[in-house]
Amino acid sequence: MSAITGKEVVLHDMTLRDGMHPKRHQMTLEQMVSVATGLDEAGVPLIEVTHGDGMGGASVNYGFPLHSDEEYLRAVVPRLKRSRVSALLLPGIGTVDDLALAVDCGVSTVRVATHCTEADVSEQHIASARKRGLDTVGFLMMAHMTPPEALATQAKLMESYGANCVYITDSAGYMLPDDVEVRIDAVRAALRPETEIGFHGHHNLAMGIANSLRAIERGARRIDGSAAGLGAGAGNTPLEVLVAVLERMGASHGVDLNRIMDVAEDLVVPMMDHPVRIDRDALVLGYAGVYSSFLLFAKRASERYGVSSRDILVEMGRQKTVGGQEDMIEDVALDLARRARGA
Amino acid sequence: MKKVKAAIIGSGNIGTDLLFKARRSEWIDPVWLVGIDEASDGLARARQLGVKVTHAGVDGLLPHVDGDGVRIAFDATSAYVHAENARKLQAKGVRMIDLTPAAIGPYCIPPVNLQAHYDSREMNLNMVSCGGQATVPMVYAVSRVQEVEYGEIVATVASRSVGPGTRKNIDEFTRTTAAAVEKVGGARRGKAIIIINPAEPPLIMRDTIHCRTTEAPRQAEIEESVRRMITEVQRYVPGYKLKNGPVFDGHRVTTFVEVEGLGDYLPKYAGNLDIMTAAALRTAEMFAERMVKEGRS
Fold first, then answer.
1. Is B163 in the A-facing interface, judged by CB distances under 8 Å?
2. From A15, A30, B6, B214, which residue has the greatest number of CB atoms within 10 Å?
3. Degrees (nearest 5) of the Cα angle A80, A85, A89?
4. How far is A296 from chain B (nearest CA, A)?
């Protein structure tokens, strides 16, 4: 018996959304469809598909994808037998028009993401998703940056707009299991019992599995992961590893271990442009609490301006940047380069 | 010199800051501040300054428009009530400067198209959004040199400077700003992104402006054009500053700007609100100057 024996966990796959970051949003439709059908056959109940920065993320700032959100969704959704599809939306980047498009493409779930202290910008999007009868999720990013009680207040706002599930999102892969526990406990105590809680981890400090387990233990029901960990920074909680651990601990999850291992090994690993691992920069993200998607931007700015990517990321942390501030990276690199020249 | 009498509708942050600025104006005399909350700080400040106030909304102002000679009204309420305010006031011949996202009238970004609106004697001008005021001049600085096939702006603002109206309808910000990047900035396609950052102490508004030119960018001309435009904006927003750039990367031209406010009623970090009130005042002053010269004040 373990603390989670018999608990029901809903696994939500991130390979085709968060995994777009290490792919620089260049996945082909064939790759999307092959991974999605593999996940479907493995029994993964929910699969997220969009630009890494959500609907409407196509931009100079975040990168232009190989295909539009619509093309990806229309390619994937009709091919799935059991899995349902979710779309991510960050207010300030995407709008309710994007949400309507996602619904038209057949998504069952919309996840509306804000910085952990700015939930009130999600009202129109959450309300709109709920009104359309969707499974509506609020997604509080960079949740390590605010104390548990303040986070609970923000979660309650999302619930009041119509979210039936609220996520605690460790976008920087900074949290340790105790950080997860105090946040889940505070949010659980604040929300109605029927409102679900979710946890989204990043593996920058190798805490993806440990944090997910603690989240489940404290009452989270939905857990994000991605096959072979394909995701921003050092990646997300590796889904096939999580499934194996949940299996050993006797939690109920409905995913076939062999099949999810095969998706990771045979489909996702060969797709990687670089090994998604805890390299020096990813470790800095986790240690300093910096948004995971900044990783490749910092590496590119480092090459272009001849300053260390670690210095860029540390400076991004020092300036308390939040998710979406990719544009600051080039600005910071220019400042650091000027300083290095002694100007 | 005789000044033109103006009313400010909305006694929140924007309206109150505008009142402070307008009191220094050579051309505008802000005689009314209109609110809906008797206890608002804005109305209290206005009373102290000897400015007439009402908390009955625009209907509290209407009976006094003719008697007090109000010729210009700034609307700093919300998109929902602007249409009604504009209808009532324009019926009395009052020129509207709209700081809401309603955008009934054409967009006005002073250093780009104020002169054109002045010539067309437009009765209702819309001030777009804070992000639009801060970034569209930079898009235009590139597009007046050569064709910009795509313009994208990222506005990052301090959480404390974003009011409940913007939060309730943030899509309006992204849509309106993107439209202004196209219609006023001159980009063939536009996109706008807003990021709200809660850091303490609050960060000064910063904006990144990306343009993709159709042909290879003519660097020297663009640099010169950007420098001129910065000076132009600084005439009414002294804290508008080119932080980095223009960066040239293939056909991408990127500028990074910072907008520090004057700290009148709002704190200095809220350059996003300051640039709105300063742009609105500058717009009103241009019309007021003509009214005075034509003896219609």
1. no
2. A15
3. 155
4. 17
Q: Is the pLDDT of residue B297 over 70?
A: no
Establish if A3 touches chain B: CB-CB under 8 angstroms. Answer: no
Same domain, residue pair B155 and B259 = yes
Fold of A293-340: Helicase, Ruva Protein; domain 3 (1.10.8)
Q: Which two tokens stand for residue A78?
A: 């009709």
User: Can you give the residue range of the structural domain that contains B173?
Assistant: 130-269
Q: From the CB of residue A189, how many other CB atoms can be counted at a distance below 10 Å?
A: 11
ipTM of the prediction:
0.96
pTM metric for this prediction: 0.95
- Helix spans in chain A (H): 29-42, 69-76, 96-104, 123-131, 148-161, 177-190, 208-217, 239-249, 257-262, 280-288, 294-305, 309-318, 327-340
Residues B136 and B249 in one domain: yes
Of 2.60.200.30, 3.20.20.70, 3.90.1150.10, 1.10.3470.10, which CATH number belongs to A10-271? 3.20.20.70
* Mean of all residue pLDDT scores within chain B: 94
Residue among B51, B114, B130, B179 flagged as catalytic? B130
The model's pLDDT over B118-137, given as tens digits with 9 standing for 90+, comes to: 888 889 999 999 999 999 99
Domain of B50: which CATH number? 3.40.50.720
Q: Does the CB of A91 have a partner CB in chain B at under 8 Å?
A: yes
Tokens of B132: 């639009």
Beta bridge partners of A252: A8
